[in-house]
Amino acid sequence: MSKTAIITGGGSGIGKATALRLAEEGVNAVIVDVDSESGEGAVQELKDKGVDAIFIKADVSKKEDVKRYVDQTVDHFGGIDYFFNNAGISGSGGHYLDTSVDEIEQIIGINLLGAMYGVRYVAEVMVKNGGGSIVNTSSSAGVIGQDSVVTYSATKHGIVGLTKSMVAEYAKDGLRVNAIAPGPTETKMVKEFYEANPKMKENATGGIPQKRLGTPEEVAELVTFLFTSKAQYINGEVIRIDGGFTNTK
Ligand SMILES: NC(=O)c1ccc[n+]([C@@H]2O[C@H](COP(=O)([O-])OP(=O)(O)OC[C@H]3O[C@@H](n4cnc5c(N)ncnc54)[C@H](O)[C@@H]3O)[C@@H](O)[C@H]2O)c1
After folding, report:
1. Does 59 sit in the ligand 1 pocket, CB within 6 Å?
2. Which of 86, 104, 178, 240 is the most exposed place for a label (fewest CB within 10 A)?
3. Helix or strand holding residue 76 (H, E)
């Protein structure tokens, strides 16, 4: 029987590339995003690949939206096999003392609370149904400290704690929870961030041993592997995919 995946932030970048890669394995998709145009567009591309796909407009920082996308998924597909807990924002960049408290709240709301609400409601369904596989999106900034992204880095370190601790509680119930920590990857988010902070781009690319950014397709390959039974004994890991960036810091 076909598997079902929820992909948050599935309208663009890493989320969309992952939904399209999973479609090659016959996996049906629920695309969750705040942006209807890109979300509907991703669904069309998925249908063209022959899988069933629906779009649910939701803001992951709102707990009632998160509950709704989980309930609608169960209504439509009957369960959830894979959860790519991926929606996130970088924030505007700049030093912490120049960051407004409103922006701090917004980044934490989307990147950390949004991810925690997602795991809260999705894992409940998975545990009831005998298990499932979750991949949370952390970042290079979730495994090392980085200049100009203090709040972002704090949220992505939080994702690491969420990942490891969920395994301690629910591996016995058939749940696998892993995280990915991509380095700078060619997506809308990173393009906009580097346009606003050009010096960060020079520093980042110069500091990557492979001397290039990653691609969403490379990250999608890793996420797909982590979801499948080929990765069935990998649990609570935080896997870096960054061209050697954080290992050489
Ligand atoms: N691109 C990178 O260099 C990089 C590196 C490490 C980690 N990440 C992480 O990867 C994830 C995906 O980012 P991306 O690079 O593909 O960026 P992206 O901007 O291309 O995609 C992010 C998607 O999330 C959606 N989104 C934003 N806020 C939302 C909200 N409140 N509710 C629902 N959807 C929302 C956006 O509309 C967008 O479609 C993020 O968590 C990001 O922090 C990205």
Report:
1. yes
2. 104
3. helix 63-77
Nearest CA to ligand 1 atom 31: 59
pTM of the model: 0.98
Question: Burial of 238 by CB count in 10 Å (0-12 exposed, 13-18 middle, 19+ buried)?
Answer: middle
Nearest CA to ligand 1 atom 22: 9
Is residue 95 packed enough to be buried (19+ CB in 10 Å), middle (13-18) or exposed (0-12)? Answer: exposed
- Tally the residues of the chain: 249
The model's pLDDT over 11-66, given as tens digits with 9 standing for 90+, comes to 999 999 999 999 999 999 999 999 999 999 999 999 999 999 999 999 999 999 99
Quote the pLDDT of residue 199: 79
- Below-70 pLDDT ranges, the chain: none
Using the 8-state DSSP alphabet, how is residue 236 labeled?
S
Q: Give yes or no for residue 42 CB within 6 A of ligand 1.
A: no
Q: What is the pLDDT of residue 1?
A: 83
Query: Ligand 1 in contact with 142 (CB < 6 A)?
Result: no
Q: Are 88 and 109 in contact (CB under 8 A)?
A: no
In the prediction, which pLDDT does 197 show? Answer: 83
- For residue 189, report the distance from its CA to the centre of ligand 1, in Å: 6
- Show which residues are catalytic: 152
